[in-house]
Amino acid sequence: MRRKRHLVIIGLLTGLVFVALYNGLVIKKYTINTSKLDAAESVRIVLITDLHNHVYGKNQTKLVSLIKEQNPDIIALAGDIADDHVPIAGTELLLDGIKGLAPIYYVSGNHEFWSNDINRIKNTIRKYGVTILENSYEQISINNSSIIIGGVDDPDITKYEKPDLDWEGEFYNAFSELENRSEFKILLAHRAELVEIYKKTYFDLVLSGHAHGGQVRIPFLLNGLYAPNQGWFPKYAGGIYKHESLTHIVSRGVSYNPRLPRIFNPPEVVIIEVKGEETSPITSPIVNLFSG
Ligand SMILES: [Fe+2]
Question: Strand, coil or helix: what is 47?
Fold first, then answer.
């Protein structure tokens, strides 16, 4: 009887370890409702961050197939897609697999600047028809909806390429004219921890990465143990965060490093469904004409 109980405990612990260390790709879905799109309209965004040139399956087929299955309207690459140590082949295989599938937008992450070869990385990415957003934005039509999509270079641009750049000031300047635009506005910005800066702009949705899900998670108890630039118990390790009119989605990323295991934190491909909703009717106050 005791032996049987021990076997059950060992079995459960083995299962738990297996689940904790699982590092296959998973899909994470979020839905955002907005009156800036017509009620019947929707836009599906696939968000990929922090690939660090890792290759999933032979020639990146696992990641590419997963993205294709989502039938995206926009593909957003929010930084650290390439890396400063791993060859860029993983990024090229991904882009070769998804080119032409949907408009693809990219912003840099810190590791791309750390490579000291940012221009070559951007030129390589550009070859696949990707739009590189560098403190810039464009308006695109998806289905029957008009969307604005902008992006900003990682702030480490000031350490490696433009030491005199006022990163924050230029960021506000670049997007100040969006104040009066009525379209749904999306920003790609690699750093999750800089949300206080993003909040001062006019974007409806910000897509970030960089935090790697806080590396170690405990379901229902701990959403991340440590993240770069946030430290221990990061506030923005991964998930969806509401800030008044701004929604911030932080991907846990698709990084994979065997020397730094992810615990209860499998690499994730994020799907965001932006759905149109009816504008609330304006209600007039009821006036009692017969009152004194
Ligand atoms: Fe990063």
Answer: strand
Does residue 11 sit within a domain?
Answer: no
Compute how many other C-beta atoms are within 10 angstroms of the C-beta atom of residue 131. 15
In a domain, 8, yes or no: no
Instruction: Determine the distance separating the centroid of ligand 1 and the alpha carbon of 59, expressed in angstroms.
Output: 24
What is the count of structural domains for the chain?
1
- Where in 79-223 does DSSP place strands (E)? 104-107, 131-132, 136-142, 145-151, 184-191, 205-209
d(CA 18, CA 23): 10
248 part of a folded domain? yes
Question: Can you read off the two tokens belonging to residue 15?
Answer: 């299962």
First and final CA of the chain: distance in angstroms? 85
CA of 10 to the centre of ligand 1 (A): 38
Q: Does residue 192 fall inside a structural domain?
A: yes
CA–centroid distance, residue 30 to ligand 1 (Å): 22
pTM of the model: 0.92
Q: What's the pLDDT score for residue 291? A: 38
Cα(106) to ligand 1 centroid in Å equals 14
pLDDT at 282: 54
What separation in Å is there between the alpha carbon of 111 and the centre of ligand 1? 6
Q: What is the CATH number of the domain that holds 44?
A: 3.60.21.10
Which amino acid, residue 197?
I
For ion ligand 1, residues whose CB falls within 5 Å: 80, 109-110, 210
**What three-state secondary structure class fits 205?**
strand
Range of the domain at 47: 24-276
- Tens digit of pLDDT for each residue in 168-224? 999 999 999 999 999 999 999 999 999 999 999 999 999 999 999 999 999 999 999
